[in-house]
Design brief:
The protein is α+β, with helices and mostly antiparallel strands. It is built from nine helices and 16 strands. The strands form four sheets. A five-stranded antiparallel sheet has the order 14-13-12-15-16. A four-stranded parallel sheet has the order 2-1-6-7, covered by helices on one side. It has a four-stranded antiparallel sheet with strand order 8-11-9-10. The longest helix has 15 residues, at 282-296. The chain starts with a strand and ends with a helix. The structure holds adenosine-5'-diphosphate and magnesium ion. Magnesium ion is lined by residues 248, 261-262.
Length: 299
């Protein structure tokens, strides 16, 4: 019997074209693709997960690549499917990389440098005051955020004192904070697929923001990585168990070392506009993904 996989890939920013190319290349290898399987519209019924009339659980693999937060319902089904079939990324890797604390913890456990961080219970804010004295500046991060949203730079003790009552009012259980790293306001985004280096580009923060995210006004530029940056990204992707990863790295000017900020489990392909500026890694990335799907579905 021929192979059949399911896919859910974002359609904006050129994603629709990427999808067509992946489907075509898989077809050349005798692999059929059912696209647009959004688990939001699936139902679990006894031992099966149904999307329209399709039994998603009977596919040979599921490729989930749609940016943006998923609802608890979607992740429930993601987790269930992951128990019975190969998924890219695996549910474990997806869940890990969705959480900045869990990711940093794993990275540090495995000797990958990150900014110093601390997680404390919301009732233990005295820890934050002590740590503030040591770090002098810190960043408060929602552990499940993206696009720089919700990140708050805390510059001094007074700001911390002012902020704490607000944070306490929000329904949060814990504080995740990082030492504010002195860096040159540029980062490296390194894409890794199947353990192999795909591409690197940089992002530069706008003059008015300390974050490099595009949504915070940052801009993308071509950037040649050195071997060390590539090695760190490969290791971070491996530690997180991600088949596909976009690793965010900055250079800590005080410690004089690269630190990993986060691992992205659904790193965007280059948009058509970015491709025009010379960011030409999409073909390589597609080929590596197709190779990997082929290998993981070999019968
Ligand atoms: N500890 C830190 N020190 C200095 N800048 C940071 C730190 N953490 C994050 N940033 C800046 O904020 C941006 C967003 O942080 P990141 O952890 O990647 O979260 P997000 O998921 O929102 O992109 C980074 O690209 C970087 O420019
Ligand atoms: Mg980021």
């Amino acid at each position: 019997m021929s192979r059949q996989i399911g896919m859910w890939l974002y359609g904006n920013g050129g994603g629709d074209k990427i999808q067509q190319k992946i489907v075509k290349k898989l077809k050349e290898r005798d692999i059929e693709t059912v696209t647009d399987i959004n688990l939001r519209h699936a139902v679990a019924k006894n031992g099966h997960i149904l999307h329209d009339k399709l039994r998603v659980d009977e596919l040979d693999l599921f490729f989930s690549y749609n940016a943006g937060e998923q609802t608890q319902y979607q992740t429930f089904l993601y987790q269930a499917l992951n128990r019975v079939m190969p998924m890219i990324n695996s549910y474990e890797a997806f869940a890990l990389t969705e959480d900045k604390f869990q990711t940093s913890f794993m990275l540090r456990q495995h000797g990958v440098a990150t900014p110093s961080f601390k997680l404390c219970h919301r009732d233990d804010t005295h820890h934050l005051k002590t740590i503030m004295q040591k770090w002098s500046k810190m960043v408060y991060k929602p552990t499940d955020g993206w696009g720089g949203v919700g990140l708050t730079k805390i510059e001094n003790q007074a700001t911390l004192d002012m902020l704490l009552p607000f944070l306490n009012q929000m329904d949060i259980r814990f504080f995740y904070v990082e030492k504010f790293v002195k860096y040159d306001n540029t980062d490296f985004r390194v894409d890794i697929v199947d353990g192999k280096f795909v591409a690197c580009y940089g992002r530069k923060a706008s003059g008015t923001d300390w974050r490099t995210n595009i949504t915070s006004g940052g801009s993308v530029f071509l950037r040649e990585p050195d071997d060390e940056v590539i090695a760190i990204a490969k290791k971070a992707a491996k530690v997180c168990g991600t088949d596909i990863a976009g690793v965010d790295i900055i250079y800590d000017m005080e410690k004089e070392e690269y630190v990993v900020l986060e691992v992205n489990g659904i790193p965007a392909f280059a948009t058509p506009e970015q491709e025009e500026t010379g960011l030409d890694f999409n073909k390589k990335k597609i080929d590596l993904i197709v190779d990997m799907i082929d290998r993981k579905t070999k019968k």
